[in-house]
Amino acid sequence: MLAMIFIFVSSLSEAAASIPTTCQVAIAGGGLGGLAACAALRQRGIDAQVFEAAPALLRGSTGTGIMISANGFSALESIDASLPDKMREIGARIVRQNIHVCRQDGKQLKELSLDSTVNFDRFGADQYNVAWARAHEVLAATVPEEYVHCDCKLESFTVSGETVDIEFAGGHSVRASLLVGADGAGSAVRRMVAGEAACLTKYNGQLLWNAILPTARVRAHADGEVEYYTCGADGQVILAFDAGEGQTSWYLTILEEHAPPATKALLAEAAAEGTVFGGFGRHGVKDELKQAFAAWPVAVELLEATPEAQIFERRLCDRKKLMRWQDKSKRVVLMGDAAHPMVPSQGQGTMVTWEDAAELAECLVARAGAGPKGPTSLDVPAAVDTFVARRAKRCAMVQKFSRQAYMGRPSPTFYPLKMVSLTRSFRKISKIFGYKS
């Protein structure tokens, strides 16, 4: 027993010893944004290190598929030139998107088939869909493991002169020139930078269920295709698409007011207790959803093919726009979901996060003195100001559009207004997808 305790304590000591006490840039959060930022900075010779709160970096499937559009590929190219091809290798090139407009009884009113191969000519890149977990693995392999430190939950930071002293749970501390808050939608760094009022959750009144499963189990889409069904009720949608490597990603949405009775009861219970609604594998969720989507065989087939433990359930939400991502010292800055969490209606959350990572690296290098081993004497405040000035307005626009254009939103019925709405939407989407960092 004593020997086992000694080995355990020794392993903890070795892990603690591997955590640096200083670095140029400390990144809180090892998700898609934090790893991308670290890769971009290290590619440019800046000593960036990732500090992840979870005990392990790779957390397995999140049940989520992501869309990599042209702006995402542009950002990945800037982060590390090898990344676009690596993402294409694990993803599915989307060649067609099929939109089915249905009545509430399941009868299809019309179908629109869109050729996605025109994306290359229009935006400069094809669209690829990948599993979130696989994209995370690719980014993790891009950053050497000695620069990623798990079980490092950030508790506080103190700015003194040109440095930030960061305290982690367990007593470890790191001194850096810049702290980057890439710690997701529930960001602790955001709370410390912007205050409690900026961290209030804004629910959009919609529920979402999603999962990833082997395509061989279902017939929900053809290779390289996306199937999207509007179900006749505001906010009710079925989405299924090829996520690459023989995997299908699917999503179901319903407005909270139209949710199954059992789900409504759980929402009310969570609200009364002040807890967060959602998670993996709630008992009975499959039966509730099969009843709610009984008129659509594709939804029933997806549900029957998916183990209940693999279905993720949540309320869709974001936070109010934040135009100032930095603290007063300009040595702490937010990025990704910590700065601009958004409703996942347009598939742009990850894309603009990768844009953040690429832009932050470029801004820091542009304001750095050159040394024999890489950039030195970082002018962090100037770089941070430039970064936020370039990013905040664009991300607020994408965040707002993602909330307004929620999945299953009805189109205006008056034809001229509908055409104006569609034209404006296309222009907004073109600006989003065509962005160049």
Task: List the topology elements.
Blueprint: H1 2-18, E1 22-28, H2 32-43, E2 48-51, E3 65-68, H3 70-79, H4 83-90, E4 92-93, E5 96-102, E6 108-115, H5 118-123, E7 128-131, H6 132-142, E8 148-149, E9 154-160, E10 163-168, E11 173-181, H7 188-194, E12 201-214, E13 225-230, E14 237-242, E15 247-255, H8 261-273, E16 278-280, H9 285-292, H10 297-305, E17 312-319, E18 332-334, H11 349-366, E19 369-371, E20 374-376, H12 380-404, H13 415-433
Parallel strand pairs: 1-2, 1-11, 2-8, 5-13, 11-18
Antiparallel strand pairs: 3-7, 4-7, 5-6, 9-10, 10-11, 12-15, 12-17, 13-14, 14-15, 16-17, 19-20
Helix pairs in contact: 2-6, 2-11, 3-11, 4-6, 11-12
How would you describe this protein?
By secondary structure, the protein is α+β, with helices and mostly antiparallel strands. The protein has 2 domains: 2-55 and 150-200 and 320-406, FAD/NAD(P)-binding domain, CATH 3.50.50; 60-133 and 203-319, D-Amino Acid Oxidase, Chain A, domain 2. 37% of the residues lie in helices and 26% in strands. It is built from 13 helices and 20 strands. It has helices at 2-18, 32-43, 70-79, 83-90, 118-123, 132-142, 188-194, 261-273, 285-292, 297-305, 349-366, 380-404, 415-433, and strands spanning 22-28, 48-51, 65-68, 92-93, 96-102, 108-115, 128-131, 148-149, 154-160, 163-168, 173-181, 201-214, 225-230, 237-242, 247-255, 278-280, 312-319, 332-334, 369-371, 374-376. The strands form 4 sheets. Strands 6-5-13-14-15-12-17-16 form an 8-stranded mixed β-sheet, with helices on one face. Strands 1, 2, 8, 9, 10, 11 and 18 form a 7-stranded mixed β-sheet that branches. Helix 2 (32-43) packs parallel to helix 6 (132-142), helix 3 packs parallel to helix 11 (349-366) and helix 4 packs antiparallel against helix 6 (132-142).
